Structure formats: structure tokens, C-alpha cells
């Protein structure tokens, strides 16, 4: 596909030059964004880095401690418990959600459904629901007082459904996240499917390929880029898991600890524990871990694409 | 980053026109039924929410979740939501609107200008801008929130509307989307022609390029609106004053009220308030479908 796209060599040389009056006009358009970006993205990161080398003491105030905070994070059982939990979460939830999204996108793209447009918009709709409302809503439904879980348990005369117990709470959170984002990912895959040139399908049809063969040989390979991007975004989302457990905590404070995820840990460290410099260190370590994982996924995606 | 490299690899495919009409494809009832299960999963929680918004607090407790209670209290619930605590909900709604209009609106303007500048001009340091901005998509927003809070509190900005608005002004993903869209939909020749005619760069942008970028801009705006409307973590840490809360934090506070000892549960207000919170955004998505769906498709040609 990229071969077909490459412009003829002669054009390739002149085309960029035509708009390459290297001037500051482009900078004029970009400057307002960059100014705000520097203020809300770059400065906080640098400030957090700075803080992570200090520690506040009751006596003597803020003092430089070198990498002591980092050493402490690496030996911090609470941090690793949370990190392990989000690791488990993303290893299970992300593949399940993306597989569901992929199946839905392929089904909608297949033109074999009745009412395609309705399916597309209805499955996407949960994305528009604010995360807080989604969690409150599912939290109510999970409850056994007036929720659906309670209704179903009454019906069966048992306590089989108990999403708000320690054994099931992570699954319950995974379900909320999946519900919210499966349609969004479906739409990314679907948009990408729409860009496959129809000649490919025609050629495949002439070769006698069936629909499943077309899915395997044409559609899935064409989706690779979209899948890599969706995976990276989902990983970033899972690593910073905060809203769902933090809101559910108001309903079941005994089931969800203050260090349930690294983000909750950082939040509680700085706002409840007043250990802001240590919280900054936790945030940085988590950011680096996320970046590394995202980078590895991207490399793997690229390697498979060139294979 | 991904985004920086992939566009070049896959600029091939022009969006496929719907040639399906002439391909004979049989519709499949089996597949439709299987997908209906999916649909049920997506819609049942919303149905639950709407149905339960019609119940009184006692009605919530003693009726089946997915059907109506005996008395239909929707109107009364809405009235109670709007008047409870001297109409604090209306205040939260207005706050949310303010944050969305200024924050998401500003984010869209900044991303539009910058995306156009990156797509259509070359300037010193452009590559560095790319690397940093696209790299920042990978920075967890919540990891940034704690340092941002610490910085803002040194500057005395916490517990003001600016603590919510300023961070909302930046959407790296929006910038990326506009950049791609401008590259595709604004032909350089048209800009050249305008320049030859003596139009200034700003005028060329405002009168010619902007119009061609509308679907992309609407997409960015819509996603920025969702992000701001749904924002929870940032206001949670930045704001103490209930008079400044957006809807999300307000609802969560109402919900938490029921947990404290000796407090009166107001779940019916939380549920009805939730319905009122999601209504505007759902309507926006449905009305603007045509725009954002084409905007997303254009984005994914390269993504």
C-alpha cells in the first residue's frame, strides 16, 4: 500500500520545496498552542522531576535527598501491589475489550446486519456517558439493595452475583471500563476498515475468496495500525486507572484500599498523607513504566507490519 | 511516536466509496441476533438509568430494576434535582457549561491553528514540536494531574475556574487529528492561489482553509467537549468550593452523602441528575453524527 502511495521521484523533490519557504508563519499559527502546552504539560513534568529529589521533613523543611525517593518506590510493597493489579487488569481487560470491538466492527462492516447504522451509534453511545455517571450507574446495578444484581439474586434465591466483593471487584471494574470504551474502539476499527480500497475486495472475490477468508487475508492486516494505536491508548488508560475504583470506594470502602492502583496511591499520598514529593516520584515511575510498555507494543506492531 | 511515523507509511487508500450497494451481500439474521446481544449490553444500563429516574427513593428499593414502579415520579424528581440545596445542581450545570465552552472551545481553536500551521508550513523547530507533542499523548493525564496541582497551588490558581480551564485547553490528540485533516483536505495549490492574489496568511486561513477543515474541527470539538464534560480527576483535586464544582463532582458528592452516618440517602436525585447530565452530550453526538463520523474516517486513513 505504501508503495502505491509514494509520489513519483521528480514530484517528491519539488513538492516539499514549494511550501518550504522556511518562515515563521507556521510558528505564528502554532505558537499559542505551544505556549499553553509548555505551561500545562512541560512545566508540571519538570516540576515533578524536581520535587522527586526532595523530601519534606517536620524539622528542617524541604531538603535534597538525591534518589532516595526512587529507592523507596522500588521497595514499596503498596506501590507494587497496585502496579501488579493494573498489570493484571490490562492483561485481561484490554484484549477482551479490543477483541469485542474488533468483532463488532467486522460485523458492522460486513453489510450483513439489519439496521447497521443503529448498531453503530448505539454501541458507541456509552462513550458519551461521563465516567462518573457510568460508575454510579453500574455501582447501583451491582448493589444488592435495589440493583439488578439484587433482583437476579432474589429471582434465583441465592447470592451467586456479588460483584462488589473482594473476589469480583476487579472484574466489576473491568466490565465498567469495557462498557464505556468498546464502542469507541469499534469506531476506530470501523473507520479504518472503510479505507480499504474496494478493488481489493473485487480481486479477492474473483479469486473466489469467501467472507472469512477476506477477513483474515485483507481486513485484519489492514487494521494492524489501528489495532496498535487502540492497544497503546487502552494500555495508557489501564495504567492510570483511577476514576472507577475511586468512586466505587465510596460505596464499598472496605473492598478497595487507598493504594488500590498506583494513581490512587499517588492521589492519597499527596492529598491525605501530605507526602507530595513522594507522590510526584510515584507518578513519574508510573509514567515511565507506561511509556516503556507503550513503546514495546509499538515496536512489536511495527515488526509484525514489516514481516 | 506511532502517530508520527505511521501517517507516512499508509497514505495510500482514499476512503472507499460505498460500492457495496452493487455487491450482492445477503443480510444475515444470525449475525444480527448475535449483535443484538451486544446492543443489549450497551443499552441496558442506560435503560436502567432512565427507568429508575422515574422512581421515588422508596420506589427504588421495592420495585424491579428494569421496570417502572407504581408511581411515576420523573417530573417530581427533576423538580427536586433542580431545587435541592437552593438549586446547586443548576449552578453545577452552568459551571460545566462554562468549562466546556471556554475549555473545549479554546482547545479546539488552539488545535486548529496549530494543526494548520504544522500541516501547511515549514518552520524552524517543527520536528521538535512534533516529537514532543505527539510523545505527550502517551503521558497519562492523571500522572500529570498531581504535579499540575502542586504547581497551581504554588501559583495560587487552585480552587479557581482557571484550574479547570487552563489544563483543558490542550488536546495533543486533537492537534494530531487537525494536522492530518488539514494535510488531506486543504490543497496547497488553493493556498498558493490566494497568496498570489495578495491575501494575507491569516485571511487565507480564515476565509479559505477553515471552511475545508470543518468536519475535522467538529470531530476535535466534540471529543474535547466529551473530555471536558466528563472531567473528574482534575476538578476533584483542584476544587474545594461546591460553588465551582462541575456536574461530575457534584453528583459524586450527592452519592457520597448517603454513606455518612445519619445522612439521608438521595439516590433518586443522583439517578435523575445523572440522566440530566448525559442528556446534552448524547444529543450532541446524535445531531452531529454526520460530521464526526467523516472526521474520524479521515483521521484513520492515516492512523
From TrEMBL, chain A:
Domain of life: Bacteria
Membrane topology designation: Multi-pass membrane protein
Coiled-coil region list: none
Any Pfam family hit: BPD_transp_1
InterPro entries hit by this protein: ABC_transporter_permease, MetI-like, MetI-like_sf
CDD domains referenced in this protein's UniProt entry, alphabetically: TM_PBP2
Subcellular location: Cell membrane
Bilayer-crossing regions: 27-50, 86-106, 118-141, 168-190, 222-242, 276-297
Keywords tagged on the record: Cell membrane, Membrane, Sugar transport, Transmembrane, Transmembrane helix, Transport
UniProt keyword annotation of Hydrolase present: no
Ranges for domain ABC transmembrane type-1: 83-297
Entry annotated with the keyword Cell membrane: yes
Family statement: Belongs to the binding-protein-dependent transport system permease family.
Protein name: Multiple sugar transport system permease protein
Organism: Cellulomonas iranensis
UniProtKB/TrEMBL annotation, chain B:
Membrane topology, from the record: Multi-pass membrane protein
Major subcellular site: membrane
Record's keyword terms, sorted: Cell membrane, Membrane, Sugar transport, Transmembrane, Transmembrane helix, Transport
A family per Pfam: BPD_transp_1
Bilayer-spanning residue ranges: 30-51, 92-116, 128-149, 161-182, 202-229, 266-288
Localization per Swiss-Prot or TrEMBL: Cell membrane
Record-linked InterPro entries: MetI-like, MetI-like_sf
Coiled-coil segments: none
Domain ABC transmembrane type-1: residue ranges: 93-288
Domain of life the protein comes from: Bacteria
CDD domains: TM_PBP2 (cd06261)
Family: Belongs to the binding-protein-dependent transport system permease family.
Name of the protein in question: Multiple sugar transport system permease protein
Amino acid at each position: 500500500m505504501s508503495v502505491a502511495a509514494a509520489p513519483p521521484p521528480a514530484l517528491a523533490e519539488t513538492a516539499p520545496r514549494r511550501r518550504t519557504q522556511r518562515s515563521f508563519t507556521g510558528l505564528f499559527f502554532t505558537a499559542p498552542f505551544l505556549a499553553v502546552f509548555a505551561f500545562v504539560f512541560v512545566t508540571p513534568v519538570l516540576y515533578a522531576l524536581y520535587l522527586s529529589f526532595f523530601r519534606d521533613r517536620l524539622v528542617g523543611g524541604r531538603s535534597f535527598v538525591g534518589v532516595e525517593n526512587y529507592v523507596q518506590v522500588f521497595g514499596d510493597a503498596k506501590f507494587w501491589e497496585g502496579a501488579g493489579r493494573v498489570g493484571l487488569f490490562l492483561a485481561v481487560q484490554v484484549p477482551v475489550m479490543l477483541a469485542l470491538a474488533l468483532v463488532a466492527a467486522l460485523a458492522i462492516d460486513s453489510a450483513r446486519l439489519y439496521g447497521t447504522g443503529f448498531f453503530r451509534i448505539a454501541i458507541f453511545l456509552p462513550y458519551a456517558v461521563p465516567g462518573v455517571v457510568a460508575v454510579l450507574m453500574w455501582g447501583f446495578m451491582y448493589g444488592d439493595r435495589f440493583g439488578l444484581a439484587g433482583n437476579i439474586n432474589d429471582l434465583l434465591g441465592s447470592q451467586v452475583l456479588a460483584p462488589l466483593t473482594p473476589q469480583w471487584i476487579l472484574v466489576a471494574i473491568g466490565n465498567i471500563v469495557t462498557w464505556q470504551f468498546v464502542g469507541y474502539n469499534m469506531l476506530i476499527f470501523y473507520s479504518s476498515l472503510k479505507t480499504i480500497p474496494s478493488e481489493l475486495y473485487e480481486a479477492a472475490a474473483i479469486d473466489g475468496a469467501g467472507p472469512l477468508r477476506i477477513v483474515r487475508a485483507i481486513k485484519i492486516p489492514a487494521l494492524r495500525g489501528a489495532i496498535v494505536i487502540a492497544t497503546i491508548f487502552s494500555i495508557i488508560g489501564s495504567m492510570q486507572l483511577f476514576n472507577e475504583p475511586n468512586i466505587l470506594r465510596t460505596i464499598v470502602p472496605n473492598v478497595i484500599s487507598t493504594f488500590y492502583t498506583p494513581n490512587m496511591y499517588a492521589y492519597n499520598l499527596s492529598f491525605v498523607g501530605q507526602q507530595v514529593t513522594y507522590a510526584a516520584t510515584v507518578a513519574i515511575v508510573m509514567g515511565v513504566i507506561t511509556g516503556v510498555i507503550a513503546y514495546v507494543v509499538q515496536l512489536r506492531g511495527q515488526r509484525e507490519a514489516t514481516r | 511516536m506511532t502517530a508520527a511515523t505511521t501517517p507516512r507509511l499508509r497514505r495510500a487508500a482514499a476512503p472507499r466509496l460505498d460500492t457495496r450497494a452493487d455487491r450482492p451481500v445477503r443480510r444475515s439474521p444470525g449475525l444480527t441476533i448475535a449483535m443484538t446481544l451486544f446492543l443489549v449490553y450497551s443499552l441496558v444500563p442506560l435503560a436502567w438509568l432512565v427507568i429508575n429516574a422515574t422512581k421515588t427513593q422508596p420506589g427504588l428499593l421495592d420495585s424491579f430494576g428494569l421496570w417502572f414502579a407504581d408511581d411515576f415520579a420523573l417530573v417530581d424528581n427533576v423538580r427536586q434535582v433542580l431545587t435541592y440545596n437552593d438549586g446547586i445542581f443548576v449552578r453545577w450545570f452552568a459551571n460545566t457549561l462554562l468549562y466546556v465552552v471556554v475549555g473545549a472551545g479554546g482547545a479546539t481553536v488552539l488545535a486548529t491553528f496549530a494543526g494548520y500551521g504544522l500541516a501547511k508550513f515549514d518552520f524552524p523547530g517543527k520536528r521538535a514540536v512534533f516529537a514532543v507533542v505527539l510523545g505527550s499523548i502517551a503521558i497519562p493525564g492523571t500522572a500529570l494531574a498531581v504535579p499540575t496541582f502542586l504547581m497551581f497551588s504554588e501559583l495560587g490558581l487552585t480552587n479557581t475556574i482557571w484550574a479547570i480551564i487552563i489544563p483543558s485547553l490542550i488536546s495533543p490528540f486533537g492537534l494530531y487529528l487537525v494536522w492530518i485533516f488539514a494535510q488531506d483536505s486543504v490543497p496547497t495549490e488553493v493556498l498558493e492561489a490566494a497568496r498570489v492574489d495578495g491575501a494575507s496568511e491569516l485571511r487565507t486561513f480564515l476565509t479559505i482553509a477553515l471552511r475545508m477543515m470543518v468536519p475535522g474541527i467538529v470531530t476535535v470539538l466534540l471529543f474535547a467537549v466529551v473530555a471536558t464534560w466528563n472531567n473528574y480527576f482534575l476538578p476533584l483535586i483542584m476544587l474545594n468550593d461546591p460553588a465551582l464544582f462541575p456536574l461530575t463532582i457534584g453528583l459524586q458528592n450527592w452519592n457520597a452523602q448517603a454513606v455518612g452516618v445519619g445522612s439521608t440517602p438521595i439516590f433518586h436525585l443522583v439517578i435523575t441528575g445523572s440522566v440530566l447530565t448525559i442528556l446534552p452530550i448524547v444529543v450532541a453526538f446524535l445531531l452531529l453524527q454526520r460530521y464526526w463520523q467523516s472526521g474520524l474516517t479521515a483521521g484513520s486513513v492515516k492512523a
